[in-house]
């Protein structure tokens, strides 16, 4: 159980500073609506309904990156989800922001400007240093309490995440609370039956970290995606072909093949690899090939095959808990969604404790009209999810625990 306080304990009529994670894909300069808005809107709605004055902080991108931009568009999308106006001020702790904060009435919502535009937010430093920034020292006295809902950014030791909990009584919002409980389960909870971990996606290091940390707690790893192909390559199959202009496989192979080979050796009896893979044939249709019959590295494989899904289904059906990280194929293209959707459907059909994670992978649930309620939890976190799965502490969660309001 977490040792932080939740918004259930927030004193009535508070003026609250709420850290959300609205970091989103940006297209043509505009933020794209996604699950993060919907989830955080629930926390905001609850705070509003309780009559608190709600001022939100969030980030978008990083200085120097294309997706580093203002949050004015985010305020519009958040307003649609909350179902009421969300005012926006293009300032974080200067005079304009302070004036806007002072104008917030009970039940109203204000979003401040991208917190990463503000000096003191970055880089990652210890909570004491962050609490001592001008940013935190200026804003904190304007509020009665701090609420952290930004679970998906909780691995970052930034001022808005670890500084405020030292300066104000701190509470967890609903997203923080539910993500924490579900994602920590694999590292801390005892399950009676089989624990299965489905790992895919594009990042070999994610899969390596998970296996390194959870090798003893997971009974069966089912592999797919780019990571799965790298393990197939370690098993001697000539797969992992980079399409022109892409560098998904060879570079990761160079950097990680030693670790992948030794993981395969150490946990080989618990690792199940794809037996067939899918590709785009000359007509542009989905073709499938048995892994055993692949003789040369000359085709880009974009999904696991149907036989593989059929082999994974009974393992999932027979599990007490299933955790998924990363897609098994390029599910954004319907022709290559068979692996990801097949595994998600198998998870949805069982009564086991099931958690789906990875910012991108969770998107497949909406895209293919699966019902979120058929899973115990669908995480909206990427890096924080991996860290939670592997039992690594999250800086913002630790800060929340330290900042927990004390009984007088
Ligand atoms: N064989 C493959 N070739 C190329 N891309 C693939 C393949 N298999 C899966 N993918 C891609 O992997 C992506 C998901 O990978 P990623 O590692 O980003 O996982 P995630 O856990 O969902 O996201 P994140 O951790 O970044 O939030 C999907 O967008 C999918 O297109
Ligand atoms: O989108 C995310 O994963 C979080 O908001 C963290 O963002 P960052 O990787 O830019 O710190």
UniProtKB/TrEMBL annotation:
KW Cytoplasm (keyword) present: yes
GO cellular component labels: cytoplasm
Annotated compartments: Cytoplasm
Pathway: Carbohydrate degradation; glycolysis; pyruvate from D-glyceraldehyde 3-phosphate: step 2/5
Residues annotated for substrate binding in this entry: 21-23, 36, 59-62, 116, 156
Gene: pgk
Chain residues that bind (2R)-3-phosphoglycerate: 36, 116, 156
InterPro entries: Phosphoglycerate_kinase, Phosphoglycerate_kinase_CS, Phosphoglycerate_kinase_N, Phosphoglycerate_kinase_sf
Family of this protein: Belongs to the phosphoglycerate kinase family.
BP-aspect Gene Ontology terms: glycolytic process
Organism, as annotated: Halopenitus salinus
This protein's name: Phosphoglycerate kinase
């Amino acid at each position: 159980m977490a040792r932080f306080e939740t918004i259930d304990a927030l004193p009535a009529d508070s003026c609250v500073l709420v850290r959300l994670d609205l970091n989103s894909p940006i297209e043509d300069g505009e933020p794209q609506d996604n699950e993060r808005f919907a989830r955080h809107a629930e926390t905001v709605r609850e705070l509003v309904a309780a009559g608190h004055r709600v001022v939100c902080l969030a980030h978008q991108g990083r200085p120097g990156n294309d997706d580093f931009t203002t949050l004015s568009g985010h305020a519009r999308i958040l307003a649609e989800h909350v179902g009421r106006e969300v005012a926006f001020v293009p300032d974080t702790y200067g005079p304009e922001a302070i004036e806007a904060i002072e104008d917030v009435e009970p039940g109203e919502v204000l979003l401040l400007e991208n917190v990463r535009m503000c000096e003191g937010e970055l880089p990652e430093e210890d909570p004491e240093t962050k609490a001592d920034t001008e940013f935190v020292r200026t804003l904190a006295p304007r509020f009665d309490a701090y609420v952290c809902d930004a679970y998906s950014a909780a691995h970052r030791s930034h001022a808005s995440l670890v500084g405020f909990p030292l300066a104000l009584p701190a509470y967890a919002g609903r997203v923080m609370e539910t993500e924490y409980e579900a994602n920590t389960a694999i590292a801390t909870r005892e399950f009676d039956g089989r624990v299965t971990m489905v790992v895919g996606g594009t990042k070999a290091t994610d899969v390596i970290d998970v296996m390194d940390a959870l090798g003893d707690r997971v009974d069966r790893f089912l592999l797919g995606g780019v990571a799965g192909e790298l393990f197939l390559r370690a098993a001697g199959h000539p797969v992992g072909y980079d399409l022109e202009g892409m560098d998904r496989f060879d570079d990761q192979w160079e950097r990680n093949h030693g670790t992948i080979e030794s993981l395969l050796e150490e946990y080989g009896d618990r690792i199940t690899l794809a037996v067939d893979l899918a590709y785009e044939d000359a007509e542009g249709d989905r073709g499938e090939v048995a892994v055993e019959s692949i003789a040369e590295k000359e085709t880009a494989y974009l999904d696991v095959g149907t036989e593989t899904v059929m082999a994974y289904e009974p393992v999932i059906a027979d599990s007490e808990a299933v955790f998924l990280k990363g897609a098994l194929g390029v599910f954004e293209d319907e022709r290559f969604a068979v692996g990801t959707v097949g595994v998600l459907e198998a998870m949805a059909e069982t009564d086991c404790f099931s958690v789906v994670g990875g910012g991108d992978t969770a998107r497949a649930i909406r895209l293919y009209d699966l019902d979120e309620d058929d899973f115990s939890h669908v995480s909206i976190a990427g890096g924080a999810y991996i860290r939670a799965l592997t039992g690594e502490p999250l800086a913002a969660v630790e800060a929340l625990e330290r900042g927990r309001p004390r009984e007088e």
